[in-house]
Amino acid sequence: MVQYSRTGFDGSFAALSDATRRGVLEQLGRADASITDLAEKFHMTLTGMKKHVGVLEQAGLVTTEKVGRVRTCKLGLRRLKEEAAWIERYHQLWDARFDELDKVVEELKRKEKVDGRKKRK
Amino acid sequence: MDARRESEPTPMKNRTTVERKSERELVTTRTFNGPARIVFEAWTKPELFKRWWVPKSMGMSLLSCEMDVRVGGRYRLEFSYEGSKSAFFGTYKEVTPHSRLVWTNEESEDGAITTVTFEEKDGKTLLVMHELYPSKEALDAAGTGAADAMVETFAQLDELLVTLGASVGRS
Questions:
Q1: Are residues B56 and A100, on separate chains, in Cβ contact within 8 Å?
Q2: CATH (domain of A61)
Q3: Domain total for chain A?
């Protein structure tokens, strides 16, 4: 079972209350980026951007990985999971609808066959 | 153990796919084992539409279903869930028999334009439902952010799935 802790939610709200951090998430939604890239993009110092990324990381919205001297940021699993979860629910709903629609289609096909036979007689 | 005999035909269930094609688009596909005219009929005749649109597993009940399926015609679906009433409504923009339906979703300012196409091949019909939202934010809101609506609408389905999942796990 997936459980979201209160601190997680509060952390997310705090993280998302800042326009720059929302911009960073949007940016990372398009492509992974290094802290240097992000700092340039948002006209900030490296230190300032590190702080923002830190807040997003704590909220589980962003993950970072250091390879050599470059720290790469990507969207956190949590955000991806939430998106996947709603698409999954949407999928379940339509799958259930379409299973019922299969039955309607089968019934109409049977009816057409019977009507067709009647017409030929 | 599976007690079925090998020779017994197993009814094939077609797969439903859902894909977020872009920031603003959600595309759902499904094949039906019948000609397009029949599948189209099931989408455009209210007495047929209401038999599948609120699946039993959802724990919702349809209160009314009005569909005036012609260009400029309106539809309105009202349903209840745990004592509260909700409605979906909008306008048909395109109605091309057996091949294409386009309608608006006006219950929200950020509602999508829904296009459904029916493509027949070898007696089967490939259905593609394309939902185009006015912005990325609108689609995000329809999903993640619509926690309120979604949680309310799907709570019962989720419960059912958990129950089913648990019983599968046990067996």
A1: yes
A2: 1.10.10.10
A3: 2
